[in-house]
Every structure is written in C-alpha cells, then in structure tokens.
Amino acid sequence: MAERRTILIDPVTRIEGHSKITLHLDEHGHVEDARFHVTQFRGFEKFCEGRPFAEMPSLMARICGICPVSHLIASAKACDALLAVKIPPTADKLRRIFGMAQVVQSHALSLFHLSSPDLLLGMDADPAKSNLFGVLEKDPQLARDGIALRKFGQQIIERLGGKRIHPAWVVPGGVSDPLTQEDRDAILQAIPDALQIAMRTLEWLKGTMEKFRDEIASFGNFPSLFMGTIKEDGGLTFYDGKLRIVDARGDVVANDLDPARYFEFLGEKVEPWSYLKSAYYKPKGFPDGIYRVGPLARLNVSDRCGTPRADQELAEFHELQRTAVLSSFHYHQARLIEILYCVERLEQLLNDPEILSKHVRALARPNALEGVGAAEAPRGTLFHHYKIDEQGLVRWCNLIIATGQNNLAMNRSVLQVAQHYVKGEKITHGMLNRVEAVIRAYDPCLSCSTHAVGEMALRIQLLSPEGSLLDEIAR
Amino acid sequence: MRQQSAEKPERILVIAYGNPLRCDDGVAWQAAEALRRQFQWAEVVCVHQLTPELAESVSLAETVIFLDAARDGAPGTVHCDVIGPEVREMRFSHHLDPRELLSLCRDLYSARPHAFLISMSGQRFEHGEELSGAALRTIPGVLGEVSAIAKRVAEAAQCRNAESGMPGTSVQQLGR
C-alpha cells in the first residue's frame, strides 16, 4: 500500500533569511498541503522595552541589513507622532529620496541577484549555475546592470546616510544633516544610466513572459485582497498617504484608511509551525481576509505613478488582466516598474529648489505617549507602533512587517505551485526550484525577524511518515 | 610613524570585512582603522560582507588586500595568502568569497588585480563589540604584511617604469 509522505526543502535558497518548506503528499503522491516555515526568531519588540524613544530609529535600523532604511523611516515617523511635530518640507523630501534609493537597491537585489537566474536560465537549470555567475555567463550585460543599479541605490544611501548599511541619518523630527550640492549633483549625474538600465531590463523581462505562461498561471495565481499606500490622487507613494484595499476584481474594498489605526482593520494570527505571524484583513476574518502587499499590491491599488515612463508601464501592467493582476509571478515586473518610478521621482525631487535647504529638523520634547509610523518598504507596508511613559522610555512596541502580511499568500502560493508541479515519488530540481521560486517572487525579508545562523547546505529529503529516507538531493 | 611617500604604491585597495558586533569577527575593521592612520595613501573600505557591487572598485585597483577574521589557526596569528579568481558554489544571495569577487571582477570588467587575503585568527565570536587580546595582537602583524605588500608593489612599479614596454609584474612575483 502506498504511503503518505513529506518533502522537506531546508533551507529555501536565494532569499533573504532562513526558512524551510514542507510538502505533504498523500498516498497517491499528490501534494495535499504545503507550509512555508520561518525558522528564526529575534524578538526586537521585546528588547526595545525600556529604551529611550529617541534611540528607536537607530535601533530599528539594525533589524535588517537589506531594508534598514524602511525601518528607520517608519520608526522616525512613529517618533514624529510622539513629538507631535510636522517635520520641515525639505526633511520630508529627503526622507522620500532616502526611501526610494533603498527601494531601488533592494528591488535590484531581488530581481537581478536572486530571481534573474530563474528568469534567464530557466526554472530547470542546473542549480550549480543558477546564480549570479550563471547569469554573467549567459548575459553579462544583465549581470552588469544588476550590479550597477544596486550600487546606484546604495551610493545614494551612503551619500545621505553616511554609510550603506544601518545608517542613522533619519531622526525624530526630520533628518540629521542637509543634502550638500556636491552630493545632489553626483546623484543627478548617475540618474540617466539608472533610467536606461531600468527601461532596458523591463523590456527584457516583458520579452521573457511568454516562456513562463505555465508559471504565471500557477505561481500564486488566486483571488485575494491587495493593500498599499496611495497619495490623495490615487498615485503610487512609498512615504506617506492613506491605505487602500482592493479585491481580486480590482474593486476598492476600503479607501482612505488611516495607517495609524491599522489595529482596527488588520489582525495577526500566530501559527505553531512558524515564527512569522499571519496578517489578515479583520472585516473578512481569518483566513478569508488574506491580502497581499508589496510591488504587485501597490500597483494594483494605484491609479497612477505620477512620472511619465512609469505611468506608461503601469497602464500596460494593468492591461495584463481585466481584474487586479493576480499572479504573484508578476511581482517581478511590478518591481521593475517601481524601480523606474523611483529613478524618475528621484530626479524630480533632487531638482526641487528647496532640496538643499538647511532646515531639516524640528526639535521638540515628547507631546504624546503613543505613536504609529507607517511607510511602504520594498516588500510592502511597514508599521511601527510605540507607547512610551512620561520619561520617554518605550513601554510597548509592535511591528508589522511586510513579509508577515504576505505570509498567508506565500503559503497558499507554495501549495498551488507544489500541487501543480510536484508529483510522484521522484523529486526533480525543477519541481522544487519552482516551489522556491514562488517564494522568491514575494522577495521575503526574513532577516527582519532573525539573526543568521551561518552557512547552511541545502538538503532536500523525501521522508516516509515513519522517518525513513525515500529520496534525497544535496546541493 | 607614517609610511614614507617614496614607498607609496599605486592604487592599493584594502577591503576589511566582518561583523563588528560579533567580537573578533570585527577585528578587520579595527585593523583597517590602524591602516588608515599609518598608511594615509591606502584606500580602505569596511564592509560587513563582500557583495557584487565591490567588483567595480576592485577592478580599478592595481592591488587589493582583503582583511578577514578567521576562526581557524592559532588565536593571535596572521596568515597572508596570494589569491586569484575562483568560482565556488554560490548557494545564497549576495555575499561572496574574495575569490568569487575577483572572478566577477575578471568577467565583468576584464580586470585582474593582484590580490591578497590576510586572515587574522580570533578567539571569541559571540555577540559583543570587544576584541579578545588574541585578536588585538594580530593588528601589528597586519600592518607589517600590508607594509611588505606595499613595498613589493612599489618596487614592481619601479621595475615597470624602468623597463617600459615589458610585461607587468605577475601575481607570483608579488607573492610570498
């Protein structure tokens, strides 16, 4: 009699952080359940308690080496709320520049370094070649472009923040130092090349879509809600605005939601098999309130970008489906459109006559005991919520990370891909690479909830329920 | 005492990498500070890990010196190796071995700088910012190694100038 079996993918490769995937097969070899487990724990929310609130931005930037700027910005915005100040207009613009530079470098990392091996070499490529060196061999220009674009974003962060990892330039009330003319001019000079790379890569990616029709149909292609921040005119933004939620038809379910009241409409559920909480939209309950955030969601909720080239690409993107764009495979294209938008918008902001103003910080003592800061991180909406005492010490802290908000969708996507591709008793790299690739499409940043445990080999085992080894692949 | 200008080599890039929040893993950062003080000509960068973006900077250098903490070897010892491009298995995202970075540099920019890896054997790698006595003892040794490399680079450059038209100095000639 055939047996029920479990396939373990541990760790998932080419993502930020450490996780594993289990696939549960029935006695006929069909996948009946799949789970994406985040196997790391950090507990930043707890050890911030008792710290002076003004330390929070620089403490929070330590959460992650990939998206420290998003944590810095959301944290500083929560502190602005504690100070109850309106930050100077130039500080507002500089924070936007800082945030978008990070979006560019983070998206470039995801697309060029992590996912381009799948997109360029194919899902069935030799795992030993599915990396930057494989891309370099097949398409040196693409590899060069990825490095250049990531460097473009990092250099802006370094120029503004003093260093590329864990900068502490964003502070409660604004930013610590104004932008110099030298730095402004240097960044502006690099923009034409960055723009060319973004446009060139978008054309390449759109040209490859035909090869991935099967993956587009099965990579997280299901109805869900989508949430993102928009400007008053419905435009794309990464820094400030109101939240909008649309359904799978693209119809607006909720509009003008105040991010500071997130707890009224967003819930979090803890599952015993993962350190990552699962967020859901409260009015629909758990798990029907499943929603997605990040590039795909942001473009689904946005009416426009507000820059010429990105607007053109957004219109084309919205044409992919008459409803909301549902397939998570399209996160890749959405990511590139956002890069394009950021580069165009950076140029606009850097040419703003106020951008070199020296008035970049509002000083105040705490005027409120509770504050929420929200921003659009590369991977989606990020919330920081602090409560302080009269001495300004943090007494309670809650962080809602983008990757957690995509947790339900990632799990459902893994199941969909596994049910489509994984069959029978023999594991192939192509099957399992697709299971990993759908996770890569979301670009989860698990570092936001962990510290690394060192180098790990990838071992995929097919086990019987009794634990006996049926098949194994080692990379 | 500062290095004399007569020994100033051309385009030497020092890349110190490691995690300064993991005790001795950050010894390269402290060694880099000492290098900055002693050899003002040196271009020194400190990073947590080697990333592909460094390939361009490496390609512009004539000589690159990587400084890294090591868990193996007798604590307090310094080891210097000549290294070259080598592609290893790249399973994870964006951090590289120095040899892989040299490979990227060669393949992307057709550049092959002379390269050295100076390893400093540490003792403690837990959370913390303080270096062990063993790690601190490696720093003078690192300065000595860098000084010796700089001297050889300068001599090689002098030879090239004297024998213009001759091929450049090989890694083997520069090595130990």
Count every beta strand of chain A, where a strand is a DSSP E run of 2 or more residues: 16
Backbone shape of chain B = globular
Query: Radius of gyration of chain B in whole Å, from Cα?
Result: 16 Å
Side-by-side strand order of the widest sheet of chain A? 3-2-1-15-16
Rg of chain A, nearest Å: 22 Å
General description of the model:
The complex is a heterodimer of chains A (475) and B (176). By secondary structure, chain A is of the alpha+beta class. Chain A contains 15 helices and 16 strands. In chain A, the strands form five sheets. In chain A, strands 3-2-1-15-16 form a five-stranded antiparallel β-sheet, with helices on one face. In chain A, a hairpin with a 5-residue loop joins β7 and β8. In chain A, α4 packs across α5, α4 packs antiparallel against α6 and α11 packs antiparallel against α12. About 2% of the residues of chain A have low confidence. In chain B, α1 packs across α4. In chain B, strands 2-1-3-5-4 form a five-stranded mixed β-sheet. The two termini of chain B are 25 Å apart. Chain B is of the alpha/beta class and 176 residues long. Chain B is globular. In chain B, α1 links the parallel β1 and β2. Chains A and B meet through α4, α5 and α6 of A and α3 of B.
